[in-house]
Here is the input.
Amino acid sequence: MRHIISILMENEAGALSRVAGLFSARGYNIESLTVAPTEDPTLSRMTLVTRGNEEIIEQITKQLHKLIEVVKLADLSEGVHIEREMMLIKVLAKGSHRAEIKRLVDIFRGSIIDVTDSSYIVEMTGTSDKLDAFIGAVHEDLIVETVRTGPSGIARGTKGLSL
Amino acid sequence: MELSGAEILVQCLKDEGVEHLFGYPGGAVLHIYDAIFKQDELRHILVRHEQGAVHAADGYARATGKPGVALLTSGPGATNGVTGIATAYMDSIPMVVLTGQVPTPFIGSDAFQEVDTLGITRPCVKHNFLVKDVRDLAETLKKAFYIATSGRPGPVVVDVPKDVTDPNIKIPYVYPKTIKMRSYNPVKKGHLGQIKKAVDLILSAKRPVIYSGGGVVTGDGAAELTDLVREMNLPITSTLMGLGGYPGTDRQFLGMLGMHGTYEANMAMHDCDVLIAIGARFDDRVTGKIKDFCPEAKIIHIDIDPASISKNVRVDIPIVGPVKSVLADMVKVAKEHKNQPNKEALAQWWSLIEKWRAVNCLKYNTKSKRIKPQHAIELLHKITNGDAYIASDVGQHQMWTAQYYPFDKSQHWLTSGGLGTMGFGLPAAMGAKVAHPDKDVVCITGDGSIQMNIQELATCKQFDLPLKVMLLNNGYLGMVRQWQEFFYGGRYSEVTVEAQPDFVKLAEAYGHVGMRVEKPEDLEGALREMLAMKDRLVFLDVVIDPGENVYPMIMAGKGHHEMQLSPDCELS
Here is the structure.
């Protein structure tokens, strides 16, 4: 099963490689991983998407907890939460495709942030499924490149993952 | 007080209470060695190989409970230490390893003797640090000792670039008295509700057994464990790492469990209805086939490390906390409990255990014309009154020692259990002898293992460490030979050590006493002679029966109840 784990950790050199090293050493898989400093620059917030049965996820969270730099973590999949991923996608936009892609971007509530006479760059935010759907809707020959951040997640309600 | 980085490092060690340091100098640590030269409180032991330094620090830690400290130079100094670091990591031994590093401006430039020490050691340390600024040095060292010794202990590496120890840059020195880390807060007490549930379960048990591990030794819980076992009249077995955590000669002790455990210990595991695992981690050498592991038991697991709980085997009552305080709480709860242990059921259980014990699974042929290794170890036990610090290497001799040298005291058994590092024994014994110069320290080893770090005999000479080496010499890499005999049709592939040095002459060449014994009738005299030479290192080459195997044994893929007993001890 897919799990999305949110980690609050010390913003120190090497912390990321400890997490990555833990996953490779113990044979866990990482589907995506995104990390950046928080409003407190001494802390980083990481969102990690992984798959596994309950025993594996329990081990993953325990092993992550053991890392000295990890301050707190939560398995967001255990409760209601919101996920968002951002994508930049460069598509060919010539002739009749220009208008069609513009319409498609509007439907998906994305925005075109760069225009040349033959291409667009589209910025789009949403769940990973929505981004997948957009990619599916554009003819594959028109896609020049896609860049995705991987999902970030946050739990609903007033409680937060903070110190 | 204004000090340079090198002086700060040395002063921090003193303020931390460190008395002994095992190390090997080199370019990146020259400033530190100069600071060591200028003082005489901290005693430095110059080893002959960095692996020896780390194992010696490890042996020192195991024999004292205090953190061991090693100092290595950058590059090959650090990489040579890695096996020692991994050994300590697998066995949760508190240790601080200081490594030199190239100066900060050179890091990442493939400079001379540069390796990414942090990257290389990351998977086998509890934590590691790179100190980039001399102003961070004292606090980092405080953190290193705190992390190494608290919670589940383990090795911590502190990588110190040469410019950080620059003798010309002096800063005010303060060693922090305490340290608080928001991201690291090991549990101090077990959950009382869980402890009560556990005691309820034990009191309702008809066939309880304790399975105790290295956590009892490193967690200083031997006295509390003994209280609990006696209070509740429980049978107890132990892992290789846990030996000495409960008196090995006591009636309630069933011997070691697992692959080469005793028949009574493994049968009790298989038939128990309540299992109490204490500071143990359900290692594959202990559990045997997981599907057949304690099939009828409810399991209580006490451990400081939550990640050890339900890792390999699902448990029913987990208790996260230091074994010492959890066990003390359990004894208290049990004493105040309205219920008593089920005396009748326990009496039946004990009589069943006595039947298994009567099989006498450690019996061996005593009529042989060749020296039996089991006999040698039993004699050593007798002559040392079971009171020596024993370091072992890895292989058959290690298992025989675990079986035939019952340890009554904690911290007396130094062995590489998790990683199984050949070459551990001699340097570890060195560490123990440094810590306990007036006690008997014996390294029991094999002819394969001893040659992996034999150079440390020179260190023992230079620093006057009159430990004893008892070599059980069978001319084979015996444990591998045994597996080839059992599982590979007796095809002995690359296990014959045909060209051996003359160990007597070798010991003498290093300035020690060398002796050899080949006949059973000469053995006791030789051992007595060896141990009588208090101020000399004696290397005793014991030529043993080369075909001897370690029994009993649980073959791969089998359960605790499917033990293979020795041909000398058939079930009647």
